[in-house]
């Protein structure tokens, strides 16, 4: 019985020591995205960007990993000048990538990073098009388009605890637009600024 009683504090301190030494490999993040550069469609405002990262190689000065982000931009477009319109536009970004996160000597809480990946943009248009002032007939708009391109990511995070951090990111996207795309007709240089926070686990 005495041995069992001694086992509990030993086990507790062992688990506590292991937890303190854990190198958290996973992280989840939530960001507010802002579109800059060339306009995508009608330049819809950002709603949210969510991400997940996994770090699989941890060296003294750099950590390598892979991750994925998904962001949503949405707006209701209304115009009653000439050919009036009233439709919802939703642009969804899917961004898988590999990245390197650097450790700065003497500045352990600050972590710059660079990443390379591919961005898929899915644009959906739902609503009506037509001249509302001259004719009651309205053209039904229901279009979904997908394009993609290479994505370069630059980031900077700051630890506010062992698990929590705040961050800022910039994504440069060279979007290769399909020539038969009815809404976009040329390649575009898109940019995304993201500000948010993350949690390591």
TrEMBL record:
<protein>
    <submittedName>
        <fullName>Outer membrane beta-barrel protein</fullName>
    </submittedName>
</protein>
<dbReference type="Pfam" id="PF13505">
    <property type="entry name" value="OMP_b-brl"/>
</dbReference>
<feature type="domain" description="Outer membrane protein beta-barrel">
    <location>
        <begin position="9"/>
        <end position="201"/>
    </location>
</feature>
<feature type="signal peptide">
    <location>
        <begin position="1"/>
        <end position="19"/>
    </location>
</feature>
<dbReference type="InterPro" id="IPR027385">
    <property type="entry name" value="Beta-barrel_OMP"/>
</dbReference>
<keyword id="KW-0732">Signal</keyword>
<dbReference type="InterPro" id="IPR011250">
    <property type="entry name" value="OMP/PagP_B-barrel"/>
</dbReference>
